[in-house]
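Need tokens for this chain, all 85 residues.
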Amino acid sequence: VHAELKGLEKFAANGGWLAGDRISAADVAAYPFVEVLLRAAGKDAVKPLDLGFLPFAKTYPGIEAWRQRIQALPGYEKTYPPHWR
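Here are the structure tokens for all 85 residues:
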């Protein structure tokens, strides 16, 4: 997973979107994967495994900035699963 995240980090670190200067299917497809990964990594049962994902903003700052860009999109809050809050 870290190898894939390092590849994603290269694209996300440019300050834009994964496949160009505007959001695309690449962003929409990759974003849920990252969110599920972070959700799982934050579970108490997983913390003793020290998987190396957290703190995510320090480990993958480009992906974290990309996540924040996605979360700032109009309508994002309406799409977030309520049972994940």
